[in-house]
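Two proteins follow. First one:
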Amino acid sequence: MRKPLLLTFVLLAVIVVLAVANLLIGSVRIPIEEVCRILLGEDTNEIASNIIWKSRLPQALTAMVAGAGLAVSGLQMQTVFRNPLAGPSVLGISNGSALGVAVVVLLSGRIGGVALSRLGYLGETAMSVGAVVGALAVMMLIVWISQKVKGNVTLLIIGVMIGYLANAVIGVLKFLSPEEDVKAFVVWGLGSFSRVSGDEMILFVVLMCVMLPLSCLLVKPMNLLLLGDRYAANLGLNIRRARLSVIVCSGVLVAIVTAYCGPIMFIGLAVPHLARALFRTSDHRLLMHATMLCGAILALVCSLIARIPGFEGALPVNSVTALVGAPVIGVVLFSRRKDDVGE
């Protein structure tokens, strides 16, 4: 156990370093001494204080918990379907969130003349509610279907089809909507860790801090599911109930993150592979916390790159997650392949 424990401490140290870097680096340079004074509550520059408390710190916290949540969701989906390409969006739940936001941004403007997304704080709240409602509606449909079908592959295909159907409806709404509303929806779809601040950030962090420990309660069923349905059933596991519990947990995690940050791609797919490569295990007692830590690290790295000095505002998070994550996972999988050949 010494090596996993050492790796865990290393990952925690990397998270601390990246969190500090997220507070220091940005379009406005703030020295580390001033950041420390701001965090300690001492009198200091009001502009710098606002940047730290209202922008950089909420963005860093949001990135950490969102990355952890998406990574755990991806691990759960890959375990349930025993498919390395499964991710948080595999059952169409992310597409359901996007459809909910499309209704708020596009359909409301078409019907009422003014899109809800243009109404400031009320619009942001409406978009968050729409994302949650859309994701939960699709998840409830998936849960109902899971009671009717037995095979994981069938459920997976149905989930993909639901995603395509949601995208088709979104396409129609885009075609019928004004250009300004379509642009607002596209911007939301790029994903961002900087949307959440103030009370919203506190609620988001609290919700994720509740859901992530609850996810750990599913470690034993997930380990049994890896053995195959027949063997797990012989060991006393209720396959249908275990599968349903994991899907619901994964779906809620995706719904919450998408509602607050938009559809963040790639983290849920890539991070579980990275955690398995680092810890060289399939035991979810180790993988669960390893995946959380690796997800938080990758999200913090992407958040940092998105705010590289020299860019106005921030780069789209989805572009950065793919640019950073794809080469890392490619190296990990290539190294694993070389080890397998060597053995």
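Second one, unrelated to the first:
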Amino acid sequence: MKAFLHRLFRDNEVAVHELNYLFWECTTRCNLHCRHCGSDCSIQSREKDMPLQDFLGALDTIPAGHRPEDFVIVLTGGEPLLRPDIETAGQEIRRRGLAWGAVSNGWFYDEAMHGRLMQAGIRSLTISLDGGEASHDWMRGHAGSYRRALRAIGLCAREPRLTSDVVTCVNRRNLSELPALHRILSDLGVRQWRLFTIIPIGRAAHDPDMRLSDAEWRSLMDFIVSKRQEGGPMHVTFSCEDYLGPYEERVRDNRFFCRAGINIASVLIDGRICACPNIDRDLFSQGSIYTDNFYEVWEQRFQPFRHRDWARGHENGLFCAQDAPCARCKEWRNCLGGSLHNWHAATPGDSRPRLLQCHYAGYPEKA
């Protein structure tokens, strides 16, 4: 019954497709060199930072009456705190009556930055912490990044006006450190801890240390289940990355639902309009803020996100999945092909999405 009711809810959300979460990839510059970076960012990015006015122009195409109360703009990158005008960006978003937040590695987030961003109206912040000191610094490619991240996490956790969470990319090196990390974050007063695993894209595509085996993945699931059963002030969840079969609702608050293109959109660094930034932008981009009206694109396009039969080999006027791996899956109604960031082109220019991983069907030992 729960699964049936969830499908009814999901179908209604798809039909309404209310936009309430908008990523802005405001920079692809980054001060770190993370092993798992999906976009292979660097301090000397190939792309220039998008001018603030260009993004605001796209944002202003959304009619005031179509901005729900829970609408939030999330600045991401790269490292968004590298933008010298981040406070101005936040103030402009707030001036439009909208909430904004950011995703950061925490390196630049000291007390001074905290004060400036709070004054600019920031309401949410996500900081990454990827294991103990040695593991985190190894993952981030920069000594001292662990201590900087802890400083940022502590500042956020102590700020009652800020909704914050910590995300951890679980890999073979840090899997055994999760109990200790749980204690560290709990002691800091963290309220939300979200764990996820990596998909083989970007720098992680050929790094075996980033990929859990099937047994390791189940160990991760069991760890999350145990911490949720223990309770406590810190809420532990698994990310929205895929359908989990028997682990559904045991490691998350709600059943799996990929909201990319349903409630979530993004404006990418080059102006392309897509959903979550980790989605294959060459396959799934729906237009550009430089040639299209952003809100009209949201309303009239995004069909591959809202009609997923292409994952089963049905063209329906859209592209068709390579090998149609979902064609005979008995869990199709509950999964709909999983998270769209798990679908990427096999080769550059290929228009046939290929499924990189499926937790329900079995986690591959190696990409």
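SUMMARY FIELD: Confidence is low (pLDDT under 50) at residues 363-367. The longest strand covers residues 163-170.
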